[in-house]
UniProtKB/TrEMBL annotation:
<dbReference type="Pfam" id="PF14340">
    <property type="entry name" value="DUF4395"/>
</dbReference>
<keyword id="KW-0812">Transmembrane</keyword>
<feature type="transmembrane region" description="Helical">
    <location>
        <begin position="12"/>
        <end position="32"/>
    </location>
</feature>
<dbReference type="InterPro" id="IPR025508">
    <property type="entry name" value="DUF4395"/>
</dbReference>
<keyword id="KW-1133">Transmembrane helix</keyword>
<feature type="transmembrane region" description="Helical">
    <location>
        <begin position="77"/>
        <end position="95"/>
    </location>
</feature>
<feature type="transmembrane region" description="Helical">
    <location>
        <begin position="107"/>
        <end position="130"/>
    </location>
</feature>
<protein>
    <submittedName>
        <fullName>Membrane protein</fullName>
    </submittedName>
</protein>
<keyword id="KW-0472">Membrane</keyword>
<feature type="domain" description="DUF4395">
    <location>
        <begin position="3"/>
        <end position="132"/>
    </location>
</feature>
Length: 138
């Protein structure tokens, strides 16, 4: 079943704010929260992530009907990519080197910002590229 395309973009906006705060404050706990949010999104799909639930409960009822839908697999894959980068960021912030924490968190922030501001999902595009390379044409 396709999902409302506004949901992942809302999640990306929240993620952008969270990761920006992590970079400014160096908060390992906030990065751990974001890593957990990515984990839930990767495991259960974006609609089961905390930000997806918030969108469905508090934001979507205040918006008009959806005008665009998308397949759930690309955003779910993007959550897995976010999980990888946030996990690397956690390792860098907690075990070192510190530059790894900054770089991985910054990369995740850049990807989230592109999705939130411009609707360009890097993880989704990576998913489509992987599919083109690995799935034989019919």
């Amino acid at each position: 079943m396709d999902i409302d395309a506004r949901g992942p973009r809302f999640g990306a906006a929240v993620t952008t704010v969270v990761l920006a705060v992590v970079l400014v404050t160096g908060s390992v706990w906030l990065l751990a929260w974001q890593t957990f949010a990515f984990l839930l999104g990767a495991a259960g799909g974006v609609s089961r992530s905390p930000y997806g639930r918030l969108f469905r409960a508090a934001v979507r009822p205040r918006l008009g009907p959806p005008t665009g839908f998308e397949a759930p697999e690309p955003p779910r894959f993007a959550q897995a990519v976010g999980l990888l980068f946030a996990g690397l960021g956690l390792v860098g912030y907690t075990l070192g080197p510190g530059w790894l924490g900054l770089a991985a968190t910054g990369a995740a922030l850049a990807a989230a910002f592109l999705n939130a501001a411009f609707g360009y999902c890097l993880g989704c595009e990576l998913y489509l590229l992987v599919r083109r390379v690995t799935v034989p044409a019919e």
